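Design a sequence for this backbone.
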């Protein structure tokens, strides 16, 4: 076995291990980091409703209120595409079980968010401009997002950040806006580096074949 062949075998093994450990194509991952802009709402900055960590990870037991008119930008440790799912907490949702559908806000505590996806975020809410660099995914009302399956929207591209903006519908105490339990996105199947490496490997094998043919 010549040197190039040995190298190709080693690289193939490495690639196989890399593919094996990569997340499955439909894997849901949860927010690992979030920035918030609090605007108004009596409970929005109090613990535990103002605890940022409450909106991270895969935990159904806590939530972080956005504050009426407030916003949050979430990241996930990976690019994402496809389905985005957001779980909300509203205590009286069961009072109106017929209230379903995108944009529904017919709970006794009407709350809703506008959802955007983007690839650039500088941490500055004051300069945030949703008409530039952000794709609008849709509106989610608390009546639809507070169920066990959360509320889902779809992206048409690949993104790094999810932006939730409370629509400021809260009128009944506590006026603290949309209450984020957790945020899940669909991880992009493979890091682009693996695809690049795969292309390089095909090139190596080609080189190895030519080398063998010359020596035959
Ligand atoms: Ca709520
Ligand atoms: Ca609320």
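Sequence:
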């Amino acid at each position: 076995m010549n040197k190039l062949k040995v190298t190709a075998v080693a690289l193939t093994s490495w690639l196989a291990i890399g593919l094996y450990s990569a997340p499955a194509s439909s894997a849901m991952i949860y927010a690992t980091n979030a920035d918030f802009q609090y605007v108004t709402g009596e409970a929005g900055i109090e613990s535990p409703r103002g605890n940022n960590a409450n909106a991270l990870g895969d935990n159904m037991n806590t939530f972080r209120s956005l504050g009426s008119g407030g916003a949050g930008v979430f990241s996930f440790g990976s690019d994402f595409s496809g389905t985005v799912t957001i779980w909300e907490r509203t205590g009286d949702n069961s009072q109106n079980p017929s209230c379903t559908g995108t944009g529904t806000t017919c709970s006794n505590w009407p709350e809703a968010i506008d959802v955007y996806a983007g690839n650039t975020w500088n941490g500055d809410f004051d300069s945030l401009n949703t008409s530039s660099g952000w794709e609008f995914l849709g509106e989610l009302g608390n009546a639809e997002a507070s169920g066990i399956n959360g509320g889902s929207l779809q992206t048409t591209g690949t993104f790094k950040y999810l932006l939730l903006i409370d629509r400021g519908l809260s009128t009944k105490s506590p006026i603290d806006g949309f209450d984020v339990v957790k945020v899940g996105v669909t991880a992009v199947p493979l890091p682009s580096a693996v695809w690049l490496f795969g292309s390089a490997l095909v090139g190596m094998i080609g080189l190895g074949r030519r080398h063998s043919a010359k020596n035959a």
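DSSP finds three helices and eight strands in the chain.
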